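= Paired protein data =
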Amino acid sequence: MAIELTDEWKQALNSAFVDGCPILWSSTGSDGQSALNFFGSTQTYSDHQLGIWMRTPDRGFLQRISENPKVSMMYRNPATRLVVQIHGEARRADDQETKDRVYNAAPEAEQKADAEKVGTAVIVDITRVVQRGQVVQSRD
């Protein structure tokens, strides 16, 4: 089964920040300790990728994905009862075209928090999507 984010998932993820449904990310570095972070700039990048704008290019998440690219995220909207867990492999993307695209798609408040664009982009290649404990999509 291939990964193809549904329109419902795309809309939910792209409006998560504005809707007050922060997306929680998990990453694990070489020390084996996992860390959790909320990233308000999380967005769909393609049918099988997510993008995140990292306002500070030298913070922990970027270090951890350079050591171990496997990440996961959780989206939950109690009003709509939509819950989506996504697993993937993340990588830093410093090319200007990708950075511009991810920055420009981030919510306005996230852009204002990095008006000088000193940050960088992260692209996550989705490996599986989980709902209600069941894998509903996975990368072949």
User: Anything to note?
Assistant: The beta strands are 24-28, 34-38, 43-46, 49-54, 70-77, 82-93, 120-131, 134-138. The chain has one domain: 7-133. The first helix runs from residue 7 to 14.
